[in-house]
Amino acid sequence: MVSGVTAPTRRQLLSAIAKVGGTAALYQAMTTLGHAAETQFHGPPNLQGARPGAKVIVLGAGLAGMLAAFELRKAGYQVQILEFQNRAGGRNWSLRGGDVYTELGGATQKIGFSQGNYLNPGPWRIPHHHRTLLHYCKQFGVALEPFIQFNHSGWVHSSQAFGGKPVRFNAAAADFEGNIAELLAKSINAKALDEAVTQEDRDKLLEALKGWGMLDNDYKYSASLRASSHRGFERPGGGGVDGAPIPSKDLYSLHDVLDPQVWTSMAFFMGHEMQTTMFQPVGGMDMIGKAFAKQVDGLITYGAKVSQIAQDDKGVTVSFTDVATGKASQAKADWCVCTIPLGILGQMDLQVTDEMMAAIKAVPYSGQVKIGLEMKRRFWEEDDFIYGGHSFTDQEIALISYPNNNMFKDGPAVLLGAFARDMGAYRLAGMTPEQRIEAALAQGSVIHPGSYRKEFASGASVAWSRVPWTLGCCARWSDDARKEHYQTLVGMDRRIVLAGEHASYIGCWMEGALLSSIDAITRLHKRALEA
Amino acid sequence: MKTILLATAAVSLLAVPAVAQTPPSGDTGGGVVRAPKPITGEQVYGAVCQACHMADAKGATGAGTIPALASNPKLAGAAYPIMVVAGGKGAMPGFAGTLSNAQMAEVLTYVRTHFGNSYTKPVTEADVSKIAKPPAAGGH
Fold first, then answer.
1. In chain A, what is the straight-line distance between the N-terminal and C-terminal CA atoms, in Å?
2. How confident is the model at residue B13 (pLDDT cuts 50, 70, 90)?
3. How far apart are CA A166 and CA A261, in angstroms?
4. Which residues of B touch A465 (CB under 8 A)?
5. In this structure, are B50 and B10 located in the same domain?
6. Which residues in chain B touch residue A361, judged by CB atoms under 8 angstroms apart?
7. What is the secondary structure of B60-104 as a DSSP string?
8. Pairing of the two strands A246-247 and A233-235
9. Cα A281 from Cα A146, distance rounded (Å)
10. Which residues contact A89 (CB under 8 A, 6 or more apart)?
11. For A303-362, what is each residue's pLDDT tens digit?
12. Whose CA is closest to B96, among B52, B132, B125, B48?
C-alpha cells in the first residue's frame, strides 16, 4: 500500500460523482450505496438571477418565512417580511426568567426561572437526519449539543400496572423482552412453529431468544445474573469482600409488563424521528430563530396583523394593521410566500381559488401543552441517577423530561413537567396557569414522591391551543384530507405560495417547515422567471 | 383548588379511561395517556372545549379568533353545532371518535343552556348519531 493506485474512499467517490453529475446524481449514488435514504435535502436551493426589481412579500417570520427571505434575497429579490409578533422565530421559541407571556383569554405569566434556565414551548429536539435544519444551523453558527433522548434509567409509570408505582425503564423493558422470549421459546419447543419455521431456523431462533431475552439453559426467564445484566441488580457488582453481585429477585409479572405503557414506551424510541442521536441548541431552542433573524436583519416588519391578501395579474397586495397603534397599511409585491398557520389564514380575506380556500380550512391543529418546572436542585440526578431523557406516565402530563445540559451542577434546573397531547392536553389547557402547575406537581409527585413539591421553585406553561399567533401547535392532516387537499395546498395559487410545516409530510417538525420553504421558493423563482 | 382537582381525578379515574396511543409521527411524548373520562356536559366542557373557547365561553382574539360560544345565535339549531363538534371546523379538530356521541350530546346540551344561551331542547345521542360521521383515518 506504499505505492501504486489506491481505491478511492467512499467520500472521494461520492464527491467525484457530485462534481460530474450534480447533487441529484450524488443522491442517487448515495441511495444505491445504501446511504442517505433518510432525507429529501440535497443542499441549499442556490437560486440565481431574479428579474431586477422583482419583489416578494413573506408572511410570517418563523423558520419557513425567514429561510424563504434569506434565499430569495440572495437570488436577487427585494424581500419584506410581515410578522404578527414582536419577535422572530415563530414556534421556535424559548421562555426565560423575566419573560412575560400572555395567552389567549388574557392569563399572563411572568417567568421566574433563574439565569440561564429556559423552557422550549415548541420544538425541543432535532433528529440527526433532519439535514436541512442541521445544514442551516451550521451555516448560521448555531452551536448544538446532544439531546439525551434515550435513557434506560428513566421511570415508566402506569396507573394500571405495577401497583401504580413507577418502575425503571430498563427493568420493565427487560422483563417484557424476557417474558416474550420465554413464551416464543416455549411455542418452538412445543413444536407449535414446526410448520412455519425450518429446523435450522428454529435452532437459530432459540439461540437468539436465549441471547436477546436473557433466558437460562431451560429457556426460562428467571431471576438471575443474566436477567439482572439487563434489568438491574439487587446489589450490583463491587470490589473486595462484598464484591459479588446479587441478582434482582422480583421480576415483574407478564401481566404487568403487558400493560401498554411498557411496550409503547419501548416502541417510542424505534420511530425514525425519535431515534438517537438527537440534538438541541446550546442555550435554548430560540438560538436557531435568532440566528435566522440575524440573516434577514432589517427585512422584518413586526406587530403586523394581516387581514387580507389580494392578487391580480400585476401583483399581490397585503393589507395589515399595526397591532400596537391600529394603523392600517398595505404592502405590495410581485409574489407572496405565506407561512401563516392555516387556522389563522383560513379566517382571512384571501383572493385564492375555492379549492385552495377549502384546503386551507381542511386541516385541524393539535394543541399540545408544555410545562416547565424549575427545581432547586437536580434530585433526578442526585437521588435517581437520571441524566437527561424521559420518564413516561399515563397521567395527563404524559412525561417528565430531564435537562440535557449542566449535569452535576448545583443550583436550580428546569425540567419539562408536562408534554401533554390529545385529551390530556385539552384538560391542562383549559386550566389557569396556576392550576396547570398544581396538576403538574401532583402528577409528577407520583414519579418523584420525595422531592417534587419540596424542591419546586417556579413554573411556566404554554397551552398551544391558546397561543395567540398560531391557535394550535401543528397541522394534523388526516389521510383523507391529504388525498383531497394536499397538492392544492402546496401548489402555487397564481402569485401566492404557502410554506410551513403544514405544507409538508414532516408535520410538527422544523425540518418540514424548511423543506417546504425550499420547495415553495424554488417553484416561485421558476414561475417568476417564466412570467 | 388542590383538593378539588385531586378529588375530581380520583372519582373520574373510576370511569373507563380512554387510552390514546401515540400518533405515528410528529414530535409528541411517548407511552399511553389515560385521561379521566368526562361524563356530564359540564365535565366535557371543562375537560375539552374550555381549552380553546375559555371557561366563560367567550373565546378570544389574537392573530385569529376563537369564536365565542356564549350568547351565540348559531347554537339555536342543534344540527350546526353537532356538525362542528363532530367534524371540526378550520383549526378545530372533529371529535367524532374522540368523544362518544353521548359525550357530544351532553356537552352540546350544556352549552346551549348556559353562557347566555337558552335553547332548552336537549340534544340527544340519537341527534348526534344522525350527523356525526365515523372518524377518518388518523395520521399527520
1. 58
2. very low
3. 11
4. 51-52
5. no
6. 89-90
7. EESSSEE---TT-GGGSSSHHHHHHHHHEETTEEP-BTTB-HHHH
8. antiparallel
9. 9
10. A61, A62, A63, A286, A288, A289, A290, A292, A293
11. 999 999 999 999 999 999 999 999 999 999 999 999 999 999 999 999 999 999 999 999
12. B132
Cell of B72: 351565540
Closest to A311 measured CA to CA, from A356, A360, A359, A362? A356
For A149-167, what is each residue's pLDDT tens digit?
A: 999 999 999 999 999 999 9
Q: Where in chain A do CATH 1.20.1440.240 domains reside? A: 169-264
Higher pLDDT: B24 or A126? It is A126
**Could you tell me which CATH class the domain A55-84+299-362+479-530 is placed in?**
alpha beta
Which helix (H) or strand (E) element contains residue A515? Answer: helix A510-530
Closest CA to A295 of A72, A497, A123: A72
| Interface contacts A/B by beta carbons within 8 Å | 204
Q: Which three cell numbers stand for residue B76?
A: 339555536
What is the pLDDT confidence band of residue B135, given thresholds at 50, 70 and 90?
low
- Chain B partners of A424 at a C-beta cutoff of 8 Å? 20, 33, 35
Residue B14 pLDDT exceeds 90: no
Greatest alpha-carbon pair distance for chain B in Å reads 43
* Contact predicate A224/A254, CB 8 Å: no
CATH number (domain holding residue B107): 1.10.760.10
Whether the per-residue pLDDT at A143 is higher than 90: the answer is yes
Got the DSSP string for A300-338? EE-SEEEEEEEE-SS-EEEEEEETTT--EEEEEESEEEE
Same-domain status, B28 and B57? no
Report the CATH number of the A95-122+366-466 domain. Answer: 3.90.660.10
Would you call B25 and A305 a contact, using CB atoms and an 8 Å cutoff?
Answer: no
Q: Are A127 and A404 in contact (CB under 8 A)?
A: no
Closest CA to A440 of A421, A411, A423, A416: A416
CA distance A191 to A208: 17
Give me A162's grid cell: 405495577
Cα B80 from Cα B35, distance rounded (Å)? 28
**Whether residues B2 and B54 fall in one domain:** no
If asked whether residues B100 and B48 sit together in one domain, one would say yes
- Please write the tens of the pLDDT for every residue from A487-522: 999 999 999 999 999 999 999 999 999 999 999 999
Amino acid identity at B2? K
The answer to whether the Cβ–Cβ distance between A364 and B19 falls below 8 Å is: no
The answer, for B66 touching chain A at a CB cutoff of 8 Å, is yes
Which residues span the domain enclosing B13?
Answer: 1-37
The answer as to CATH 3.90.180.10 being correct for domain A169-264 is no
| Domains identified in chain B, total number | 2
Gap between the Cα atoms of A345 and A328, Å rounded: 18
For residue A42, give the C-alpha cell: 440535497
Kindly tell me the burial class for residue A87, based on how many C-beta atoms sit within 10 Å of its own C-beta (0-12, 13-18, 19 or more). Answer: middle
Contacting residues of A for B6, CB less than 8 Å apart: 442
Q: Please state whether beta strands A55-59 and A335-338 pair in parallel, antiparallel, or not at all (unpaired).
A: parallel
Give how far the C-alpha of residue A126 lies from the chain's centroid of Cα atoms, to the nearest Å.
6
pTM for this model (two decimals): 0.91
Distance from CA of B127 to the nearest CA of A (A): 24
8 Å CB contact between B62 and B103: no
